Amino acid sequence: MGNLASRRFNPSTDLVDLKGKVAIVTGGNTGIGLATVRHLARGGAKVYLAARNESRALGALKQLEDEGLAPGHGEVLWLKLDLSDPRDAKKSAVEFLEREARLDILDLPTYHSYVSPVAFTRVLIPLLQKTAAEPASDVRVVNVTSIVHKLVPLSVKFDETSDFNIKYKWKLLPGLTRYGHSKVMLSLWTRSLQKQIGANELAPVTVISVHPGGVDTFTHNWIFPRFFKWLVSLTIAQPDVGAYNSVFAAASKRVHENRSAYRGVYLESQPTGRIAAPNPVVLDDALSERLQRTTGFFGTYRCLIRVSVCTLFYSSSLF
């Protein structure tokens, strides 16, 4: 599975020049997020590892330091980001604006869904557009979703807060479907954001949603971890390879060479960077408008705290 996932893509040779570029990677202290940080930093970017827990973030920074960043590689800094509350997410984005004058890559491999990532992203939109207006820019936003969003029925709606809290008890896999429900929202936001900030050809921004594929971010917590890591590796990828689809969307040469083909698309991981058809509901512009109206992103932040769909039942790295 790992070999198939990596086919046609090698981050050591297939990334654009990232020297002088600034990136944010959420959930960057572990799993796919940490692997994404590693790949982008090795490509020369200045990467903000966005995470809530300081000790874990500093531990991840120490791990990267011990691995060594050779001359010409970028640097990695911690950005405190708590996605459990959209108000805290907004504060973190404001803090970033005070520290940096550009943002080339916003990569959101997160276990939280929709509301906080969107609140975080919206504060950063003016800086993304400012950077995109510079000569030879290549600004990208990557939202990590999941293939399980295809489990969500075509009848899904977002007209009132109760629509966010459907239990899907009649489904064979209700927990997975609830998780997919949250990823439908994130996928709708991806396409909406592309339309909002990608229409200006003088400052184009590429917005992509990706399914990372199956990734082992759990066997290190099991009994006999070395054995189970080997066993699981026969079917799913380790985080460094599992991050390939996210890194492809964030910085690959192929996207740079044909940006118009990748704007607003959904990528699956077999092979890396494959444009795939999402759940048809993701293509429903009217549904997207209702989602944004209900959650109040064109007005106040009403509904954000009340929406409980952000409670996750499975790790996105598994699906």
Automatic annotation (TrEMBL):
<dbReference type="InterPro" id="IPR036291">
    <property type="entry name" value="NAD(P)-bd_dom_sf"/>
</dbReference>
<dbReference type="GO" id="GO:0016491">
    <property type="term" value="F:oxidoreductase activity"/>
</dbReference>
<protein>
    <recommendedName>
        <fullName>Ketoreductase (KR) domain-containing protein</fullName>
    </recommendedName>
</protein>
<dbReference type="InterPro" id="IPR002347">
    <property type="entry name" value="SDR_fam"/>
</dbReference>
<dbReference type="Pfam" id="PF00106">
    <property type="entry name" value="adh_short"/>
</dbReference>
<keyword id="KW-0560">Oxidoreductase</keyword>
